[in-house]
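Long-time lurker, first post. I've been practising inverse folding by hand and with some scripts of my own, and I keep getting stuck on stretches where the structure tokens seem ambiguous. Below is the full token string for one chain I'm working on. Before anyone asks, I'm not after the true native sequence, just a reasonable design that respects the backbone. If someone could post their per-position residues I'd love to compare against what I wrote down in my notebook.
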């Protein structure tokens, strides 16, 4: 929502941004001081003295890293919100296999030395990576007999004769899929995901992930500032009493007895419970540690992915770890956040393989969140006259839009269990397209900024 309010302000829209909370970022905030985290999770008492000063902590409620070459970094660069933020590279990415964790190779030398694969497997894997690097969806000469829109990823793995272990870490630690459904889908998307991973890795070398100093809460604040520069207004601590709809169209928002009038409204599912449907649950466990995670070479930050079939599940388990090096914890302390999609009636048991890697844990905070998706896409509620029923067709493609959206309420999706922002950026671009009637275009955004600010000064 903050990113969209920034982008819409740059686009010349008049934006009023109201938040019922007293802090920026809603569900994806960073909580400081530590005392507030204890309160939020209803833990008795206050943090022990061994945790240091409460105000040295900025704890993310939803852990996510940024892909160095990913969509969010591009949005930050194009909007120049990078001015307000400092990033550090995450030191390593690890994958779980047979009860142990292994570093995901980040260079050719590491790949050759890695005990994740045998010697001949390494050779085949290298051939596969070269193929992916050269692959260009606009140049059929790079396909080598693969049809990107028809050949399944399973067949591509077969073509390079890759074994199950390599398929596991390629699909889950490089392409970052949460389940194995992708194996039977056309390979183009997977190849592009592996490319994104490799290109992100090439930028800084240790891992493909970046993380902002002082926590993820800095991101919404940065975009709120962008909105303010372009005339947007932000109000925190603003209770929302009612969304006012007249003749099937949103006309305003009522707060503290007054109505702020509008033509379009963007909100998260918590503001419109009657217009969203529950699509699942995510469990997240925030753990405070006094030590780096074992077998990570004492990294002060890392990601660990536990592929689902290593622990007989349908979806992966993720661990994100950051520390005092990122100004989010007291000196010598580490924050590890484990998360996964809930599959059973005992979510805490499901996440145990991740927590076992983190022992001893000084304090943990467990949350189980419902995942919501909008039931309508900004059309009139419940019934969409879209040549069929509301929402998506069986294949997951959105039905063609026959006319503009009369209701003009655009609802974001809840944050999923992935540990990067790519799916969130897809949602942002999707909402943008439905609101503006055109694709989100990074270059056009840059031009609009230049129209207002003048060309960037020549260095």
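-- Answer (accepted) --
I ran through it position by position. Result:
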């Amino acid at each position: 929502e903050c990113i969209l309010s920034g982008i819409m302000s740059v686009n010349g829209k008049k934006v009023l941004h109201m938040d019922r909370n007293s802090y920026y970022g809603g569900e994806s905030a960073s909580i400081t001081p530590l005392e507030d985290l204890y309160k939020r999770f209803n833990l008795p008492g206050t943090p022990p003295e061994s945790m240091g000063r409460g105000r040295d902590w900025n704890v993310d409620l939803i852990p996510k890293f940024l892909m160095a070459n990913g969509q969010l970094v591009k949005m930050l660069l194009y909007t120049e919100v990078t001015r307000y933020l400092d990033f550090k590279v995450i030191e390593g990415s690890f994958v779980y296999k047979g009860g142990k964790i292994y570093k995901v190779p980040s260079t050719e030398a590491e790949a050759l030395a890695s005990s994740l694969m045998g010697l001949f497997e390494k050779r085949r894997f290298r051939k596969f990576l070269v193929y992916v690097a050269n692959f260009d969806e606009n140049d059929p000469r790079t396909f080598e007999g693969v049809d990107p829109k028809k050949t399944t990823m399973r067949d591509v793995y077969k073509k390079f004769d890759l074994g199950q272990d390599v398929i596991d870490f390629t699909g889950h630690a490089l392409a970052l899929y949460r389940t194995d459904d992708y194996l039977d889908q056309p390979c183009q998307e997977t190849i592009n995901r592996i490319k994104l991973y490799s290109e992100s890795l090439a930028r800084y070398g240790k891992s493909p992930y970046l993380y902002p100093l002082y926590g993820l809460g800095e991101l919404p604040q940065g975009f709120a500032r962008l909105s303010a520069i372009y005339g947007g207004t932000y109000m925190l601590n603003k209770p929302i009493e009612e969304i006012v709809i007249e003749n099937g169209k949103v006309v305003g928002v009522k707060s503290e007895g007054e109505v702020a009038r509008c033509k379009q409204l963007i909100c998260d599912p918590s503001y419109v419970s009657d217009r969203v449907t529950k699509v699942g649950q995510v469990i997240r466990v925030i753990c405070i540690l006094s030590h780096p995670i074992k077998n990570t070479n004492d990294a002060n930050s890392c990601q660990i992915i536990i592929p689902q079939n290593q622990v007989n599940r349908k979806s992966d388990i993720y661990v994100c770890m950051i520390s005092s090096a990122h100004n989010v914890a007291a000196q010598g302390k580490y924050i590890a956040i484990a998360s996964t999609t809930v599959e059973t009636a005992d979510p805490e048991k499901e996440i145990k393989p991740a927590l076992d890697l983190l022992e001893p844990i000084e304090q943990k905070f467990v949350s189980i969140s419902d995942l919501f998706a909008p039931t309508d896409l900004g059309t009139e509620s419940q019934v969409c006259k879209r040549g069929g029923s509301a929402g998506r067709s069986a294949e997951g493609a959105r039905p063609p839009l026959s006319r503009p959206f009369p209701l003009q309420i655009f609802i974001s999706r809840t944050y999923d269990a992935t540990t990067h922002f790519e799916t969130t950026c897809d949602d942002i671009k999707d909402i943008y397209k439905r609101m503006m009637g055109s694709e989100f275009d990074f270059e056009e955004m840059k031009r609009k900024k230049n129209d207002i600010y003048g060309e960037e000064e020549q260095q």
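A couple of notes from the structure itself: DSSP finds 13 helices and 19 strands in the chain. The two ends are 33 Å apart (CA to CA). Happy to go over any region you disagree with.
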